[in-house]
Design brief:
This protein has helices at about 15-20, 70-84, and strands at about 5-10, 25-30, 40-45, 65. By secondary structure, the chain is of the alpha/beta class. It has a single domain (about 5-84), classed as Rossmann fold, CATH 3.40.50. α1 links the parallel β1 and β2 (about 25-30). The relative contact order is 0.24. It comes from Tumebacillus amylolyticus.
């Protein structure tokens, strides 16, 4: 069981459900959580990554792109991040 807190894009409900069962505290990814402060990771769908070719956001938390990953894959990545 973990007490880790992750922000997840709203459209990733399957990932949210799985990580909640794994003991993660899951919050919605919104403007307040995008800086990553107090978060162990941010999980995004990857659907709208850098469409305009401009990157102007910064975050203090690692970002995991969920595109093409299963909830189990994301859980493994979170555990790898925790070990670093």
């Amino acid at each position: 069981m973990t007490n880790k807190k992750v922000a997840i894009e709203q459209n990733l409900s399957t990932v949210r459900d799985y990580l909640s069962q794994e003991g993660y505290q899951c919050v919605n990814l919104d403007n307040q959580s995008q800086n990553g402060q107090g978060l162990d990771a941010i999980i995004i769908s990857g659907a709208d990554i850098n469409v305009m070719g401009v990157e102007n956001s910064t975050t203090q938390a690692p970002v995991i792109n969920a595109h093409g990953l299963t909830p189990e894959d994301i859980s493994k990545r979170l555990k790898q991040i925790q070990q670093q």
